[in-house]
Write a structure and sequence with these properties.
Number of strands: 17
CATH superfamily of the largest domain: Pseudouridine synthase
Shape: elongated
Strand content: 15-25%
CATH architecture of the largest domain: 2-Layer Sandwich
Helix content: 25-40%
Number of domains: 2
Distance between the termini: 99 Å
Radius of gyration: 30 Å
CATH topology of the largest domain: Pseudouridine synthase
Oligomer: single chain
Structural class: alpha+beta
Order of helices and strands: HEHHEEEEEEEEHEHEEEEHEEEH
Number of helices: 7
Length: 319
């Protein structure tokens, strides 16, 4: 019988463990190559779409016999063109960018088909031939009554907040929403940038509510509300929760809840999660604005000092 060849070091013996084999229970390394590749491809696609839009706009202007306006031909100290259009109340900034790419915007009679152009106060801006003027900014607070939906129009014909808003010749839009059965403080403005930041949880604007719930929450339920509960698959941010009064006879409790988010029906869903459904809900504070002294349906125009405080709160320059 032939003798087996000895191991000469070219390969490990059979009983030696492979170093490359992962240990049992060790966490597997996450492969991020695919994700990085997808992100890179998405960025490339977005850049290509932007370039195609610019090229299409330039081609359309040439077909119309109009040359795009050079950036140097307009004031360099003014505001960006898409911002001017958005401030007029015609559309959002993103929609204004699309109008520019499509060659539908002119400045002093010349077509502008690219981003980055700035305009001054004396420059004449038109969209599809319509003169664009900067609308005056208004910010109001409304004590929204119950039974009213927070929208400017409703297909179902329900009462909306429009009849409570003053007529300033501009469209005042609500910042966030209060559901139909919730009353209290609602901020409305035609300042799109301010509205966007006030509603974004990143800026941590506090919203305080007076809540009456069924039952008397114990310490465990209150701790859950304060630490955060899962609402529609996502955990809510930490909240301030205090008991105002408890009524054993009626088996109800009054709470004061302060949150930083603005998710749909958030306070109601939080209370339902801990087993104490909401009976009544009222927002009494938004940032440094209070509803005290305002009748249901009453609307109040904010002064410059109050608006400047709101803008500072979310990192915007004062007016």
């Amino acid at each position: 019988m032939a003798e087996r060849p000895r191991n000469d070091g070219s390969r490990p013996p059979r009983d030696q463990k492979r170093r490359s084999a992962p240990k049992r229970g060790a966490p597997k390394k996450q492969v991020t190559t695919v994700k990085k590749t997808l992100n890179k491809d998405r960025i490339v696609a977005l850049r290509k779409n932007r370039q195609d839009a610019i090229a299409h706009a330039k081609e359309m202007t040439q077909r119309m016999g109009v040359q795009p306006l050079a950036k140097k031909a307009i004031s360099e100290d003014g505001e960006r063109l898409h911002v001017r259009i958005a401030h007029s109340g015609l559309c959002s900034r993103r929609a204004a960018e699309k109008l520019i790419f499509e060659g539908r915007v002119t400045v002093n009679g010349d077509v502008v088909a690219e981003m980055g152009v700035k305009v001054g106060d004396s420059d004449e801006v038109r969209v599809d031939g319509m003169l664009i003027t900067t609308a005056k900014i208004y910010t109001v607070v409304l004590n929204k009554p119950t039974g009213v939906v927070t929208t400017l129009s409703d297909p179902q014909g329900r009462p909306t907040i429009v009849k409570y808003l003053p007529q300033y010749g501009v469209q005042l839009k609500p910042v966030g929403r209060l559901d139909m059965e919730t009353e209290g403080l609602l901020v409305c403005t035609n300042d799109g940038e301010l509205a966007l930041r006030l509603a974004h949880p990143r800026y941590g604007v506090e919203k305080e509510y007076q809540v009456v719930v069924t039952g008397i929450p114990d310490d465990k339920a209150l701790t859950k509300l304060r630490d955060g509960v899962f609402v529609e698959g996502r955990k809510t941010l930490p909240a301030k929760v205090d008991i105002i009064h408890a009524e054993p006879k009626s088996n109800t409790t009054g709470l004061r809840i302060t949150i930083h988010e603005g998710r749909k029906r958030q306070v109601r869903l939080m209370c339902e999660f801990v087993g104490h459904p909401v009976i009544s809900l009222k927002r009494i504070r938004y940032g440094m604005l209070y509803v005290h002294g305002m009748r249901p349906g009453e609307c109040k125009l904010l002064g410059k000092k109050e608006v400047d405080e709101l803008r500072k709160m979310v990192g915007l320059p004062t007016t």
